[in-house]
Design a protein that fits this description.
By secondary structure, the protein is mainly beta. It contains four helices and 47 strands.
Length: 690
Amino acid sequence: MPSPRPRLLATLILAIALVSLALVPANTHAGATTFTVNNAGDAPDAALNGTCATAGPPPNCTLRAAIQEANNISGNDTIQFDRTFDTIRLNSELPYMDATDGIHFDGDINNGVGIAISPADNVSINFGLVFITQAGIDAQNIKANDISIANFAYDGLQVCAGVFNGTCGGNANGIDISHINSHFNGEAGIRVFGDNLTNVKVTSSPVQSQTNGIVLQGSETVTNVTMSDNSATNHSGDGIEILGGAVNDVTITNDHYVVNGGNGLYLHSNGTMHDITLNGLLANGNSAYGLGDFTNSGSLFKLTMSDPVATINGLAGIAILASGGLSSTTVTNAKSDGNTGDGLTLGGSSGFDTTAVTGGEFKGNGGNGIAAASAIGKLGGLNISSALISGNTLDGIHVSAAQTGVGASLIEKNTVTDNDRGIVVTGFARTVAISQNSTFANDRIGIDLAAAGDPATGVTQNDTGDADTGPNDLLNSPHLDSITPNNASGTACAGCIVEVFLADNDPTEYGEGKTYLGSATANNNGEWSVAFCKQGVDFDNGASITATARDADGNTSEFEENTGLLADFCPTPTPSPTPSPSPTPSPTHTASPSHSATPSPTAQPQVQGDATCDGHVTIDDAAALLTYLATHSGPPSSCLSAAGALPFGDFNCDSQSDTVDVLFVLRYLVTLPPLTHPGSCPNVGEPISD
């Protein structure tokens, strides 16, 4: 189970505590006041008298002076800007803002364009903007919006609640952070921490090139968090971290995590985690997990993940792991391709309860397409359905458990192809129902009940009386005793459901079951019969039939040995004759028009974003650009941008190739609106004019 990496938090928080005690004066006036910064300078306030004014001449309201005055007045104050300038360069660290009564830092200088704050040239400053409260005082009603913060040694923007003995030991409630562009800072772009974090909102904030992008950390709880439309790119650590003793009621929508040195998204709880909703997230090119949800000692209840895209990550694309169990967890329409590990890893140490993976694709991963494991408990309540699982180095679907126990799981109606093995049940996993899947063209067999000593082929032979034990009770496959032009019949365990398939003719001659044809229940004598000729199924010469059995508990067998079909199987019925049509009048003859010469075909126009020069924009183009950024090798620049003079992969025409260009391609692939770029630059997917 992964654990949070070491941090410099203790040292940094202690620095905040010591400095803040000196810089935050006692409040002497009451009431909420608005201070308007009208000067880009860095001079201090002349006198703490309720008026923001430097000594002059002339007296002006600088940002430093506004913070000093706001700290001296109780009430939910506002700091805003008069829009006559857009940049502030600091000569020393700003006073930390006293958030005892709340504060609004409004950096909007031009309808959403934010004020830019950074150190002056050759000046090193630890923190950008810090909101702080003293010991025993909660931080609440803090709002910060429309600010660009860059080049500070530690955090760009930080909220620290209740400084006590060098730690943030208070509570933070009602934190609203939006449109914060934090980049090239030494630690976190945005950090909020204390004992308990409640009602925290972070939206539309791009963070780039720091240790971590956005960190929300509550030593006891993190509750009611809303995040949307953020992007975290090119950090040495994680893109987003949400860490707590317990993590509950978190909703994240349309965030992007690209090319981070750790995880894209890292959700971690030392206890339980529940009511987590993740919609439309994109994680690409991260060195660890793309999207990771972990608990160290508790269970994970009610995680809902829909439409995630996780590609080319260094470990699993999506990992959901709980030291307890997984309950009411759903993953819908995921796209997890090209990751070094599994496409999707599910782990509930004590088992699964109502955990569902529905739809989506898991392709070309270096591990399994989908892996689900119960480390100390039974495997029950897992449902994997209607997914495309192909081209993975290991197995398409791999499920395992450490203990036996009845708890129905279902793997149904998936397409599983071109993996090492198709569907694998191993360990002590029982009652895993496998139904109506299409398995074909896997390197080994389609269904493998992989007990200890499993042969290299994966085929487990039937035993007399079916007394052997192992995954899915090593249920015997059904016998195919008779095949007639319209049905197959045979014997199986009494009361078992037999599913019949058109076989893919695996080299072992046991399956794989490519096309589901029908099913029947064996009677008390074990006899069954399935009529299977059906419209739309091609019964070519040499085709074979295979079958599986499933008992009342859901244990499903491997495929039975294939049995060939007769050449005249499922004959095409003779069509009824149709009446001759009535004669129609001869048409009036008209002169044929003269034909002009057919023009020679023109070359297919180049397409913006096509890094591989194949005429289309796919995930391969994002991968090609990521490879280029790491190795500086790739196709010629002429097929990569609107003008040959632009650098390789410059899809937003800003004269440089970077991870932002990767983001342009990824947004196009998931049908998000394009980001802004010069008007003469075509959008990704549009033809490039000559």
